[in-house]
Every structure is written in C-alpha cells, then in structure tokens.
C-alpha cells in the first residue's frame, strides 16, 4: 500500500479527520476545530494525597547532567538530561524552570507544563533550549510519581499498550563515501538483526553531499543490499532548500522501495514541506526541531507530514509529545518520536512507545547508554531481532547507582553570574 492509499484509509477509519486544508484559512477550519485541544493522560486517581514538590535540583557528574525531584514527603525521582544541550542552557533550568514547579502539587503536572511556559516570560525563550529544561524536569517528576505508587510511568500515562518495541536502527555516515557508508549501514543492521533502518542522505541543513553524487548512488546500493531484509527510511536533515530538489530525491527513494522520507526540506519551511508531500507517495516525516503544538497541528492537518516526530527532549517531554500522538491518531496518521543522541534517550523513547496512541511501526534506536551505572530490575535492554523490551519497574524503570549519584555537584544560583 502506498502512502497516499494508507493516508486516505487511515482518515476514513478514524472518522475524525478534519480536512487536509483545515488550517489554511479561517473559512476552511472545520466547525469543531479547537486551536488548543485539551488532552489529558495522567491518571490522578492513583494518588490519594497531594504530592508537593520540595526541590528540583540539577547536578553535574562528569559529562552528565542529572535532575532530582524530591517531594515534601521525601519521595524522589531522577532523570538524565540532554547532556549536550544542558551544557548551554543550565542557567535557564536553575533560574526559569525549576522555581516554577517548587511548592506545587505534581499531580497537576499536565497543567504545570503549560503554566511554566508563561512563567516570568518564558514564552519569549521558546525553542529547544527552554523545552530541554522542561523535559528534564518532567522526566524526574514522572519518575518520582511512578515510584510513589510503585507503577511504571507508562501505567500513569494511560496504560501499557505494548511490552516490546520494534526498532529501526539509525546511523549517520555522511563523512564516508558510498562504499564505506554501505558497509557501516549493513553492519548496523547486522548488530541487532534489525528489520528496519534509517540512513542519512544529503549533507544536512541546506548542504549537499560531501562526496558528490553520494545520495544518488547510496539509495539504490542500500536497497539492493537490504531491501529484502529491512523497511528502509531516509533522512535528509533539511538538506534540500528547493522543493523540486527534495521531490527529485523523493522519487528516487520511491523507485527503490523506501517507506519514509524525513525532513526533505528546511524544517521551518512548512509550505515547501507540504509541496513535497503533495507530489510524492512516500510517507513524509518531520517535527524533530519543532517546539510548537500549533505548527505540529498545521503540518498534520494540512497533510505536510504523514508521520509526526516530536523529539522527547526538544519538544518538552513525554506528556507534550503524547499530545502530538493523540492529535496524530485523530487525523489518521502515526507518531514516532525523534531520539536525541546520548544520555538515556533510549529509555524515554521506550516509555513513550509503550503507552502512546498511534505509535509508528518502528521506533528510532541509537544504542543503549553504558557509560552511566544503572540497573533495570526485571528487564534486560537487549535487542533481539530488532526488538527491545519496554521498562517494567516503578517510575522510569531504571535505578542509578547511589554511590555514583553522590558524586554529583549541585548546580544552583551560586554558579550563575
């Protein structure tokens, strides 16, 4: 089934599709259109008393940034932030994000995630820097809530939908020529006997191939080597400024049996993205750079993407990303989160994939972090035939070594100018 047929069938099946052109103008908006639909996921009935946040602290341990949420009753939750981004934005976490949550009832976390956006004019800093801080706080608070009721976070957020998650292995070998890229891509697939793979094309963000003609040669080479074994995805990372160039490459992908084409045009040029989607039958994916629900809604309702991809850090955490998944479900498309490299991104992806509606067939995988001492009781995060189990323990399902955590250096206002 090609992408157009799949999309139309999904629309008919849901019965809730609101029109590809729903947001093109006020006149074209459906009668039941709501600019900010209210989606709620946390089961507050699991908690018999308020959970008041006493502290939300940021620690640095080696190259890792940890967040600890602690309630007035002494419950704790931990999270690892996006280590690369937090290097640049830790002052925002300390000054602009953590103070808002302290003293509030964490059972209201969904409303709080909206409230922190307006706190002290935080909306003026919207973007990855701000939402990485919010996501890091949310992960720690959700871990704390799960531990209080001794349930996995997925159970708190609507219930476990799948206990095992199918993966696509993602890789970036742009610095290599076609032959070496192909060898590395095949090795990646073989490492876990993956049934789906995503590789890079183009040169990333308005740049063409470092090796001239690499994309045009690599696409059929990967299809010949892996097309019978794997579902094939390609990611241009906004390489093509002009829609016509993205369409040309998209047609090459289609003719070689690829299923998904990610970020074919510059990520914030939504009209060009829609133009590409209108011209191609392959599934168009996008959203990893996005931080606005309104722009996600535009892309989804206007048919500019057929696979939504909120990044669990860049978009502000699990709950905000679940809202995108719910909207995707209502509009008859799928949602697969983008995974930032490093930290415990694989863990948060597994939690999301285990409970999200409209989850895509395969989830992005970039490896399991082995540089931090942790354990996951009852679950061995080992990839077998391209499948990995979801966490089952309380909270996020991972316990960090207490001795390691005690090495943390508290980052507070005394570190800020």
Write the layout of secondary structure elements.
Blueprint: H1 3-14, E1 53-61, E2 64-71, E3 76-80, H2 83-101, H3 109-118, H4 128-149, H5 153-156, E4 164-170, H6 178-192, E5 196-200, H7 214-226, E6 231-235, H8 243-255, E7 260-262, H9 270-279, E8 283-286, H10 293-301, E9 307-308, H11 318-330, E10 334-335, H12 345-355, E11 363-365, E12 374-375, E13 387-389, E14 399-400, H13 402-405, E15 409-411
Parallel strand pairs: 4-5, 4-11, 5-6, 6-7, 7-8, 8-9, 9-10
Antiparallel strand pairs: 1-2, 1-15, 2-3, 4-13, 12-14
- What gap, in angstroms, lies between the N and C termini? 58 Å
User: Total number of helical segments?
Assistant: 13
Question: Would you identify the CATH architecture of the largest domain?
Answer: Alpha-Beta Barrel
Q: What is the helix content? A: 25-40%
Largest sheet geometry: 9 strands, mixed
H/E topology pattern: HEEEHHHHEHEHEHEHEHEHEHEEEEHE
How many β strands by DSSP?
A: 15
**The top level CATH class name of the largest domain:** Alpha Beta
Uncertain segments:
6-32
Domains, number = 2
> What structural class do the secondary elements suggest?
alpha/beta
CATH superfamily of the largest domain: Enolase-like C-terminal domain
Residue-averaged pLDDT: 90
Shape: globular
């Amino acid at each position: 089934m090609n992408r157009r047929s799949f999309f139309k069938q999904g629309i008919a099946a849901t019965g809730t599709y609101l029109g590809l052109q729903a947001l093109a103008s006020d006149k074209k908006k459906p009668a039941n259109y709501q600019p900010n639909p209210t989606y709620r996921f946390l089961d507050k009935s699991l908690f018999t008393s308020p959970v008041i946040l006493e502290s939300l602290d940021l620690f640095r341990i080696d190259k890792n940034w940890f967040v600890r949420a602690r309630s007035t009753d002494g419950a704790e939750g931990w999270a690892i932030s996006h280590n690369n981004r937090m290097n640049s934005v830790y002052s925002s976490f300390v000054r602009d994000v953590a103070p808002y949550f302290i003293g509030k009832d964490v059972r209201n976390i969904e409303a709080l995630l909206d409230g922190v956006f307006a706190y002290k004019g935080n909306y003026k800093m919207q973007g990855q820097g701000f939402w990485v801080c919010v996501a890091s706080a949310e992960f720690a608070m959700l871990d704390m809530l799960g531990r209080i009721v001794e349930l996995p976070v997925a159970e708190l957020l609507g219930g476990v939908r799948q206990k095992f998650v199918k993966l696509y292995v993602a890789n970036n070998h742009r610095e290599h020529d076609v032959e070496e890229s192909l060898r590395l891509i095949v090795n990646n697939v073989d490492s876990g006997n993956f049934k789906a793979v995503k590789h890079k094309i183009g040169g990333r963000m308005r740049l063409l191939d470092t090796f001239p003609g690499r994309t045009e040669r690599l696409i059929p080479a990967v299809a010949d080597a892996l097309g019978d074994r794997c579902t094939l995805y390609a990611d241009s990372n906004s390489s093509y400024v002009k829609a016509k160039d993205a369409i040309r490459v998209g047609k090459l992908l289609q003719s070689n049996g690829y299923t998904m084409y990610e970020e074919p045009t510059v990520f914030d040029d939504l009209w060009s993205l829609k133009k590409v989607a209108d011209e191609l039958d392959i599934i168009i994916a996008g959203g990893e750079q996005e931080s606005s629900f309104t722009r996600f809604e535009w892309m989804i309702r206007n048919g500019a993407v057929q696979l939504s991809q909120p990044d669990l850090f860049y978009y502000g955490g699990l709950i905000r990303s679940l809202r995108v998944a719910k909207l995707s479900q209502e509009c008859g498309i799928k949602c697969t989160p983008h995974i930032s490299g490093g930290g415990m991104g694989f863990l948060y992806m597994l939690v999301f994939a285990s409970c999200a509606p409209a989850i895509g067939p395969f989830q992005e995988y970039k490896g399991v972090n082995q540089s931090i001492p942790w354990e996951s009781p009852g679950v061995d995060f080992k990839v077998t035939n391209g499948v990995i189990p979801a966490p089952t323990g309380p909270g996020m399902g991972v316990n960090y070594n207490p001795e390691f955590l005690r090495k943390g250096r508290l980052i507070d206002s005394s570190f800020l100018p």
